[in-house]
């Protein structure tokens, strides 16, 4: 009897115990390495990833295929030598603000393949990371300040999520972002001044690859691009808009991109573009790779001929070969 009362009391205590609820890792196998020492012998971790678990010297930590539903505040903390952290394919649903504390050298943070639905402010801000992988999650909400104050962020992977909106106010004090992988989301529109906080390659000098600007918005549901969407960026290597639902391109929409190399608009709903749009395209900077890829669109053949004539006159590479062949075949059919 006495024993049972004790048990009940202990159970109630455990339920009420605040700290007991804050255990992010429960008996989780962790792989950790140090560049000089090689693989570190770490037993399964209960609690958080910190020096008390023998991780003080870890340069790289990987947790994969585990069950970590919530990363509580301080889930990863006080690891001054850590530069690569991978918590992947581990059913993470939620990350609390402050989950990554005092990891000043962290360069790469991989959280791909989880079930994260929301990115709050206070999780990532002020990290020194250069590469952030949030792909293959269930993200449908990103707070406006979620990506602020990431001064070194170069590569952001957000592909394969459920994001419906692009917020032009993202990336305040995150000026070095060069690669945005946003493929396979649910974006319907690119709003005005979409990239007002992203400055491009000019000031990036520390030799950490890659140095290409590559914005990948392929395989979304984009129907409209605001004419001022790209107004604030001058330089872009590749803009990938493949497999969207774009039917109309406003004059001037790309005209501020002084140094764009390639714009891929393959596999959209374009039947025609206006003369004003064509004349507003940046051209003639002599960049070999410069090309506008417009193939696999339901072109009006008359319009396509106009585009090709324009292209020849201006010396711009307008890739429409496949569509042209289709038009030629249709013409031959008509003659028959
Ligand atoms: C194609 O464009 C031409 C010229 O702009 C127009 O006269 C014609 O009706 C269009 N054809 C179709 C099928 O929309």
Give your account of this protein's structure:
- The chain is α/β, with parallel strands linked by helices and 336 residues long.
- 15% of the residues lie in helices and 20% in strands.
- It contains four helices and 23 strands.
- The protein has helices at 2-16, 275-280, 301-314, 321-335; strands at residues 25-28, 31-34, 38-40, 45-47, 60-64, 70-71, 76-77, 84-88, 94-95, 100-101, 108-110, 118-119, 131-133, 141-142, 155-157, 179-181, 189-190, 214-216, 224-225, 238-240, 262-264, 291-293, 318-319.
- It has a 13-stranded mixed beta sheet with strand order 3-2-5-8-11-13-15-16-18-20-21-22-23. It has a two-stranded antiparallel sheet with strand order 1-4. Strands 6-9 form a two-stranded parallel ribbon.
- The N and C termini lie far apart (98 Å).
- Mean pLDDT is 88; it is low at 12-20.
- 2-acetamido-2-deoxy-beta-D-glucopyranose (NAG) binds at residues 300, 302-303.
- 2-acetamido-2-deoxy-beta-D-glucopyranose binds at residues 300, 302-303.
- Keywords: Leucine-rich repeat, Repeat, Signal.
- This is Slit homolog 3 protein-like.
- Pfam families: LRR_8.
Short account of what is shown:
With 336 residues, the chain is α/β, with parallel strands linked by helices. It has helices spanning 2-16, 275-280, 301-314, 321-335; strands at residues 25-28, 31-34, 38-40, 45-47, 60-64, 70-71, 76-77, 84-88, 94-95, 100-101, 108-110, 118-119, 131-133, 141-142, 155-157, 179-181, 189-190, 214-216, 224-225, 238-240, 262-264, 291-293, 318-319. The chain has a 13-stranded mixed β-sheet with strand order 3-2-5-8-11-13-15-16-18-20-21-22-23. Strands 1-4 form a two-stranded antiparallel sheet.
